[in-house]
Design goal:
This protein is an alpha/beta fold. It is built from 20 helices and 5 strands. Strand 1, helix 1 and strand 2 form a beta-alpha-beta unit. About 7% of the residues have low confidence.
């Protein structure tokens, strides 16, 4: 593992080396004042750590094309949040400056664990080159207009944000970066809006509109996808209930977010089901579920959300003895899309007898969506 740190001073690199010895990690650390000076090392870097001054340099941007596997970590000082909005899309994780060795090690190890889970070279290369999830333009316009109202409430902003899974993912990503999280995971949109504040959120939306535009697959019906996402979110939260309801609802909202990614080559699962495609074949192909989960994991969203998105079609992969977020998302997504529920899985976790009741709940949510 080669970690290349650019910008700042060499002291942080030496401190990291000492920490690696304490943690008994056989990682190498190199420091350079800027990406140009570190050009030779950048080509073989596993992790690139930059500050705001060096993050958007031509050399750093070239690295993303030549070495998409590299984990890109951005360091921010307190007070730089607004100025750094344009840089967030190019970073996999955001950490506080000065660099904390323990935080960096945790961030790198979590990404490495995720890559072991999704060990696909094609997937890594594709995701590594993607800057941002492309939100629906209509949502940008609605949010910007809403935030021009000085009396707008946090609840209203959270409601509008929850209508678009892509934008919801971006907001959650920012909130769960070390720069904003203060050690507590945020798993629901209203808490995210409260943490950021309307001023920071307005900058995030405007910066996303300016810098985060990218074209997604042309065959995706975004309106239908958003309708499914909202229904899945509502149902997953009700299925799980209790303190984990918001976690399940958020995972349900983001379950199909991989469909928005360009270059994945997946199909819309609902459309495939309507066309008579074998759902087992669709689920078995390494496509939108793995891609969406991989990207959400790179961005630092909570592990239960990442796992639920990844295993939404095959919950038994989790090897869990209980019914939690992944199970709730699997059932909710299947009932909303009209694909088979894994009844063997539900039997194994003692929840099969609840399936008839859950089907009725899904039908009611579907009726409400049609009436809306």
């Amino acid at each position: 593992m080669l970690i290349v740190i650019t910008g700042g001073d060499a002291v942080q690199a030496e401190e990291l080396k000492s920490a690696l010895v304490d943690f008994e990690l056989d990682w190498k650390v190199e420091w350079a004042p800027d990406p140009v000076a570190a050009n030779a090392s950048l080509q073989s870097a596993d992790v690139l750590v930059t500050d705001l001054e060096t993050h958007g340099s031509p050399a750093q941007l070239e690295l993303r094309e030549r070495n998409p596997h590299a984990i890109r970590i951005l360091l921010l000082e307190r007070g730089q949040g607004g100025d750094a909005m344009h840089a967030l899309d190019g970073a996999h994780r955001v950490l506080n400056k000065p660099l904390d060795a323990g935080e960096l090690i945790d961030a790198v190890e979590s990404v490495v664990d995720l890559r072991k889970l999704f060990d696909s070279e094609e997937l890594k290369n594709t995701i590594g080159r993607i800057d941002s999830l492309p939100p629906a333009p209509r949502m940008y316009i609605e949010l910007v207009q809403l935030m021009r109202d000085p009396d707008v409430s946090m609840a209203e902003i959270a409601y509008v944000l929850s209508q678009d899974p892509a934008l919801a993912a971006k907001v959650l990503r920012l909130c769960n970066s070390a720069f904003f999280s203060a050690g507590r995971e945020i798993t629901d949109i209203r808490s995210a809006v409260t943490r950021l504040g309307l001023g920071m959120l307005r900058q995030l939306v405007l910066a996303s509109e300016t810098f985060g535009r990218s074209e997604g697959p042309s065959g995706i019906d975004r309106e239908a996808m958003q309708t499914r996402a909202l229904a899945t979110s509502q149902l997953a939260g009700k299925l799980l209930g209790g303190p984990s309801a918001e976690l399940a609802a958020t995972a349900g909202l983001l379950a199909e977010v991989g469909l928005l990614l360009p270059g994945i080559g997946d199909v819309d699962p609902a459309a495939a089901s309507e066309d008579g495609a074998d759902p087992d074949i669709v689920a078995a192909s390494p496509g939108h579920a793995e891609a969406g989960a991989y990207l959400l994991g790179l961005w630092g969203l909570p592990t239960p959300i990442v796992e639920a998105v990844a295993h939404q079609s095959r919950p038994r992969r989790m090897r869990s003895t209980g019914f939690w977020v992944t199970g709730a998302v699997h059932v909710a997504a299947a009932l909303v899309k009209g694909t088979p529920v894994d009844e063997g899985y539900l039997h194994s976790v003692g929840m099969l007898d609840k399936l008839p009741q859950w089907r009725l709940m899904a039908e009611q949510i579907g009726h409400n969506a049609e009436a809306a």
